[in-house]
Amino acid sequence: MFRVQEEGGGESELKEIAPETVAEATDTVVGSLDRIWTGFLGHTPYVIASLMVLSATLVIVLLLRRFGSHLFRRTTSRKSLQDLFVRLLTIVIWILGLLFAAMVLFPGLTPAKALGAVGLLSIAIGLAFKDIFENFFAGILILWRFPFEEGDVIECEEVTGRVESVEVRNTTIRRTTGELVVVPNLFLFKNPCEILTNRIKRRVSITVGVAYGEDVAGAVAVIQKAVEACKTVREDEQIQVFPKGFGDSSIDIEVTWWTGSTPFAVRESKGEIVTAIKKALDEAGIEIPFPYRTLTFKEALGVRKETE
Fold this sequence. Notes:
Layout: E1 2-8, E2 11-17, H1 22-71, H2 79-105, H3 111-128, H4 130-145, E3 153-156, E4 159-166, E5 170-175, E6 180-184, H5 185-190, E7 193-195, E8 201-210, H6 216-228, E9 240-246, E10 251-260, H7 263-284
Antiparallel strand pairs: 1-2, 3-4, 3-7, 4-5, 5-6, 8-10, 9-10
Helix pairs in contact: 1-2, 6-7
């Protein structure tokens, strides 16, 4: 039992109000549920229509992913740019599809209100996921401007390997030792990145040492002839063999040539060159010296023979 104070005719009166019975409360709840169910049934056509819009959007997106690269082949021959166009167009189609489905589901929603809500939502999401969006836009710039593709070997800071995939947020790189590295695109965008396989050929250099008592010009000629005979050396580029400087125990000769650009091609060529130069110098009788050490003492050392 509740009492409510009422003011009327200048005098205050207390009026007793009895609580609802269980039956009355049940009727109220049932009536509310009935109105909700009736409203849901009345709104069902809008729900079905919005689901149809989403289904049509999904079909369009799947077709775009399946045949999108063929549509953009005339625009560019780079696969990364073709993938970028497909991804951006997919995002635009999903945004338009969701907006249209929302306007169908809620008939009072106008395009202006929908775009305003999307703008506020994008600001909130951008502040909450700042790093994710930085990597996203860095990925777009990498796909748009950077010259490396899937399959290229790149080197960035301490990460060296073959690019397996370039996605919007991350780039996966397979090291030459087999590990898979997932690199944020912002890391590649901010740091210097070397594309080792940008060309099909690459210049390689090693240093060879010959003894000070040897004929340097003759050693250069022997090395030049040995390098020219190697199969992994490209014939369309010049071989360069020049004395480089005076080492601790040898005259250093720099040998430079061109070979394939992949890490395997470089290692293979280095192995062949080192083997060929060593064999040619041995056959010519030219010494490749070990490091020499000369020890000087302040006082003369005495020699004493130990007796048993």
